[in-house]
Amino acid sequence: MAAHVQAGGPAAGCDAFDECTTACGTCADRGTEAGHACEAAGQDCEDPAPLDAKGNWRCVCRGKATGANVGARVAACELDECAVDCDSCAVQGGVDVCAAAGQTCVEGAKTPYALRDWVCACAAPLAFVTGAGGAAVCEVDECAQPAARACREAVPPQACVDGDRAREGDWQCVCPNGTVGSAVGGAAVCELDECTTHRACEAAGQACVDVNLTAADTWYCRCVLPEEHGDDVLMGAAQCNRTGECVGNDVCAKAGQVCHDDKADPLAMGNWECRCIGNFTGAPQTGAPANC
Q1: Sign of the torsion angle spanned by Cα atoms 14, 16, 22, 28
Q2: pLDDT in tens, 152-197
Q3: CA–CA separation, 134 vs 155, rounded Å?
Q4: Which of these, 112, 263, 274, 292, is most buried using a 10 Å CB contact count?
Q5: For residues 145 and 126, what is the distance between their CA atoms, to the nearest angstrom?
Q6: Which of 215, 208, 197 minimizes the C-alpha distance to 258?
Q7: CB 151 within 8 A of CB 160
């Protein structure tokens, strides 16, 4: 067929039309297809050269979705809502919702039809609890983590307490009943002042002293009147006399020991000695603390 030329527009006798909007054998909405091919795929139709070639229309992704036509008219479109800025995305107005919370965005399906299916993933060891389409609520029971075995393996065993599961590093070991103490991130040093539970010294008008708050059975009674002397008695009332070098002598007590003055000759000078008590052993030392 001879070519026709038309100045200022399509040549006369030529078929010049947009294949995206016209029904024809090569068009996007030709009758042999079930409706408009691009519209049915949720995409837009594009005819790059409506005045030139025929059958060159294609479908292109809408909005922030991206994809190419690979061996087909319809594009393989994807929308990664974790990577682009859009109304349904994790990045909104230039702000990454997940990153701002110290979390990582995880996309569900990258199809343009599955919107707002992204979630923020908690940073390990925190675990996801609730939240979709926004920062997650993250928790972790640190008492269930291996490090918390320090509480259970302590002697005596201690309780693990995680006061705020949304925070890391705040778990603590708490001493059992009857003792006092706690420690964050490890076993506590538990103290037991046995003088708060034993009343033998108080009943005898004497002072109670617990020389080792971390061990049991280390309390003793001591004479308190200036004119009295007597051996400090482990876990019982002291026998207080009116003379002796242990009166007002705190050398042994400062070393966590008891003072003893020989009752055979209470008036003799320089024969007082310090003795170990409780689970501590060692030879008595005259005039000085013993090596317990």
Answers
A1: positive
A2: 999 889 999 998 887 888 999 999 887 888 999 999 988 888 888 8
A3: 45
A4: 274
A5: 11
A6: 208
A7: yes
